[in-house]
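re: that complex we talked abt at group meeting.

here r the seqs, copy pasted straight from the sheet so there may be weird spacing, ignore it
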Amino acid sequence: MALTISELKDIALNLSERLKVDYTNFADGFFRRRIAYLFDKMSFHRTQDLYSALASLVKFDEIAYYLSVPQTELFRAPAFWRHIIKTLADPNVKSIWLPDLSSYHELYSLLITLDMAGRNDIRVVANLLSDKAKNAILSLNVNKKDEQQDISNFQRLETQASFDQYVLTTPDGSRQLRKGLVDTVEFRNGWFINTQNQKFDIIILRDTLLSYNLKLHQQAVAHLADSLSRPGALLCIGAGERPLGSQNRLAPDSSTEGVYSLIA
Amino acid sequence: MATSQYKAIVIGGSAGSYAVVSKIVAALPPDFPLPVIICMHRLKHVRAGFVEALNDKSQLNVIEPYDKQPVERGNVYVAPANYHLFVEYDATLSLSIEEPHLFCRPAIDHTLSSAAKTWRDKLIGIILTGANKDGAQGLKDIADRGGYTIVQDPATADVPTMPRAALRLLQPSATLPPQGIIDFLKSIR
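got the structure back, here u go
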C-alpha cells in the first residue's frame, strides 16, 4: 500500500513515542521502505492495524524487530575482521560495545574473533531493541542457507582456526554457534542514543547510520565518539559510512575502511 | 542533443557489462556535463581494484560514494559491493544493506527507480548486458516518468537476459550497440 507523507510522519511520531527511538529523524527513503516491509511482514493493511499492534506487547516487540535491518552474513567485510584480530593483541582493549544489534551476525563474528585471539576476558555489551532479536541470538542458531558466504568470509580471515570449530552441526542437522561463547555477553534493552556514561575501547556499529537522516546521523556519531574510552579507542562503522559531523574527533585508519580512532 | 533538459545518467549492468562500462567511462570527456551513476552486479567481497581500474581509464572522477554524498557533475558514482545504492529527493546518494532484491545487492532496480522519482523526465537511463532481469522495472520507472531510456541491443550483449527483460517491459527511446551508446553520450553538450 502507498502511504502519504502525512501518514508516514504520523507513523514516525507514534513509533518514536512507543519504541523510544527517534524515527522522525530516520532517512525519508529508508523509513518509507522499512514501513512497507513492516506492513508486508506483519500483514498490516492500514495504519490503524499498526497502531493496534503497538498496543500489544507481543506485536510491539515484533514491530521493533522488523524495523531493524539485519546483517545477512557472518564476518561481513573480512578485511575489517582481520583488523579487529590485530587490534585485540593490544592488552589495553578491555571492553567492546555493539550498540544496536539486529541479528546474530555481528555478535557471533565478534565472539568467534575474541576466542580465536584468546581474548575471552574482554567485556562485551550489546544493546537490542527487541526480545525477538535477543531470543534469536540466544538460540545460537546459524542460518544454513547463508553458510557458503559465511565460510567464504571466514576463510578470508586467514587464521589457523576452522569454521567448524565454532559453528557446529546439531543432531537434527541444523547449525549452531558453539555453546558458551554468548554466556558472558551483557545484553541491554533500548536505543543506544539514550544511554549515558558508558565508555568502551571498541565500538562496532556497522551500517546502522545508513538508516538515519543527516541530523540524527551526526547526533549518533557524536554520542558514539563520547562513548570511546580514550584516545586511540576505535569506532567501527560501515565501509560506506563516514562519521559526519565528528571528523575532527575521529581519525580514519589508513588500512581498513570504516575504522576510526578517537583523536587525543 | 539539448543537454540542459537532463540532470543525470544512470546505468545498470550485470554479466559482461564491465567491458562496456569501461569503454563508456573511458570515452566521456573531462567536461562531461552530467553526473553518471552506475549500478553493476559485482562480487561481494571484492572492494579494492574495481573502481580504481575504471578510474584509471576515465577522465572523470570515478568513485564509490559514501552514504549521504551529494551528486555532482564531473563524477561517476559506482554502487559499492554488497550495498544497495539509492538516489534521494535532495539529489544525495544513500546506501543500504536492506534485503537483496532478485538475489542482488546492489540491485539495479533500486538505483534506477529511486533516480526516476528524483529526476523524473530529466533522467537518462541505460540498461546493458546482464544475466538477470534486475534493472528492467527500474528502466520502466524512468520511462513512465518521461525520462530517456536506452537498452543495449541484445544481439551485442554478452548475456542478453537483462536487455531482453527490459524490452519486454517497455519500448525504450533507443536500442543501441555499445558504440552507439558511447556516441549518444558523447553528443551530450
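couple things i noticed - The longest strand of chain A covers residues 95-101. Residues 248 and 263 of chain A are 8 Å apart (CA to CA).
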